[in-house]
What does this fold into?
Amino acid sequence: MATSPSLKNSWLDEFPARIAELDRTHLRRRRRVVVPESGARLQIDGQSLLAFCSNDYLGLANHPALIEAACTGARRFGVGAAASPLVSGHSAANDALEHALAGFAGLPRALYFYAGYATNIGIIPALVGGGDAIFSDTLNHACLIDGARLSCAQIHRYAHADLEALDAALAQSRTPRKLVISDAVFSMDGDLADVPALLALCERHDALLLLDDAHGFGVLGPQGRGCLAHFGLNGAQASPRVLYMATLGKAAGVAGAFVAGSDAIMEWLLQKTRSYIFATAAPPLLASALRASLQLIEHDEWRREHLQHLIARLRQGLATGLRGSTWQLGESLTAIQPLLIGRNDEALAAMAGLRERGLWVPAIRPPTVPEGTARLRIALSAAHTEAHIDQLVQALSELSATCRPETAFG
Ligand SMILES: *Cc1c(COP(=O)(O)O)cnc(C)c1O
It folds into this structure.
């Protein structure tokens, strides 16, 4: 006789209430169904909107050369890699991409991963463990934080960009193995880490520096070679103390990530990174698309010039448009332009007001950003036009005037 399955008095019964609690505290996140239209336009939940939310900073995600390369790669290598890299999944396409990435970044050797998140949660525990120490900027990306936790090393968090605090923490630490981890471009603020100063501290205290350049790769430095190139710290100037990590699903327009550095450290990571060893290799057709992307990143200087021009136009426009408003544009020279609003409800109202005007800019609230710093995260792309920027500036100027709190008048 079949008895119906029962969840009586089980913790599994608590999920509906736990979800309701997310609703009550405005922390429930919603996915929206997105279909790309032309340029920077997206169809979001059926509505056509001009989007300022994409990390496709160079406008390459829908480029015909990448689509063609992906199709050619699929015909030659198939769709799936079929095994982990150390078994039989290390396709000739992935191998060629690794050499191209190392050459592009100006570092001795690179390892190509299927995702940036998996890269950081895997390589940090491969580098340090119990008894070692990690030093982490408080605004670091979640995957650096999670990798640090997984490693079981002691974690010292220093206030955002406070290099004096980092220096003191490094000086106090008696552990022989020290790892400093930092976003190169901070993902919610768009500001750039002081890489030369971080490297100098690592040299002074015999530490290794892991930089996550998810938002700088393709955008910063000559030919878009990233944050190290921006500071002249790649090629002949590359330090064996730097591990450079970047993702390939943002400016590169595809998917995946890589880490690059000295031969010895890269060989160690190949031997010890569990998220690399125990996972199916990235589809080789993506490596084909990525090699086409690297060509465009390197040669289409106009994409970066256009992006820089749009960034300057937005900043100039808002300097005038937000005069007298409490809304403040963060100090950022990258494609990430945070407009700090403060209150969660005001940020959400601004986002809704923009949507009514056909514009899509995501409001970012705690816990993703610190309490009281809710913001609109404006992301610009080479796919935008001057007219798009002007439209956004106009809408934000109007909204900031109407959303202004009472106190500002009196
Ligand atoms: C997006 C992002 C990642 C994760 O990369 P995926 O390839 O999307 O997994 C890692 N670090 C930073 C700073 C990011 O912004």
Remarks:
- The chain has a mean pLDDT of 95.
- The longest helix spans residues 301-321.
